[in-house]
Amino acid sequence: MTMTDWQIGSPTHDRLGESILWHAQEEALYWIDFYGPLIHRLKQGALTTWQIGVGKMIGSLVFVDDGRLLLAVDRSLHLFDPATRETVLFADASPGPDKVAYNDGKIDRAGRYWLGTYEMSETEPLAAFYRVSAGGVLTMADDGFVVCNGPAFSPDNRTLYFSDSVGRRILAYDLDAGGNLSRRRTFAQFPADGGLPDGLAVDSGGDLWCALYGAGRIVRIDPAGEVKLSLPAPEPNVTSLCFGGADLKTLFVTTGWRNGTTAQTREKDTGGCMFMRPVDRAGLPEPVLALSAAR
Fold first, then answer.
1. Which CATH homologous superfamily contains domain 28-278?
2. For residue 253, how far is the Cα from the chain centroid?
3. Which residue in the list 14, 108, 164, 198 is annotated as catalytic?
4. 273 touches 235 (CB < 8 A)
5. Euclidean distance between CA atoms 138 and 140, whole angstroms
6. Any catalytic annotation for residue 92?
7. pTM for this structure?
8. CA 231, CA 158: separation in Å to the nearest integer?
């Protein structure tokens, strides 16, 4: 695979594109601009963008079984309906100290919602990683981080992977049927010049793909922790990735502005665009959060 395999999937020029997910039932791609705060949807070649009327930053989105999106916005959780553009409060659940806000989140293969936080100055280990109930109650799963990213789950849902971005490592945990984590270990450690591990995705063979922010690289790591592929990304600040398309063999990635980019210069480069390319490994369908029966 070469750099020429990458194509611009959408020239959005987001300041910080993030949280990209493929909705298999809709055959649509969703992602956000963290600082927009914006939600993008690419469906049948048509791009729709929604400006969210609450909060200043969107940390992540996940899919809900009633067609809505659950958004981690600043320090609270909101449901957004793409059909009506209505945003309603889901949970005013405090993520911790005032300098902490919500960041990356995903649904595991048992339908549980996992959500991390970040410390806004990105210097103090005040962030934590939570399991969130369908009623909006947070249960702390681990803490002591600066920026929580990922997460991702093995095909059998027995391993949870998590990006401790400032720690430059990916952690792995055993995940039991009750949603409890144990046996924390370092799955991968990256050098100072190796970028920050950010978004994660697991393919159908069980390998973990990781976007290395600042390094312009994506790595694929097998379950034993061995790097099997190191793929140049189209932009240095690659943030999040997912598998999509009819056969789940298209890799979609989000990026952010390059260092030094401003609102006046952003159109001169491709930082913040969404990119895509074919890969020879299929992904897995993205789970959804079951709220219709719980609320």
1. TolB, C-terminal domain (2.120.10.30)
2. 10
3. 198
4. yes
5. 6
6. no
7. 0.96
8. 27
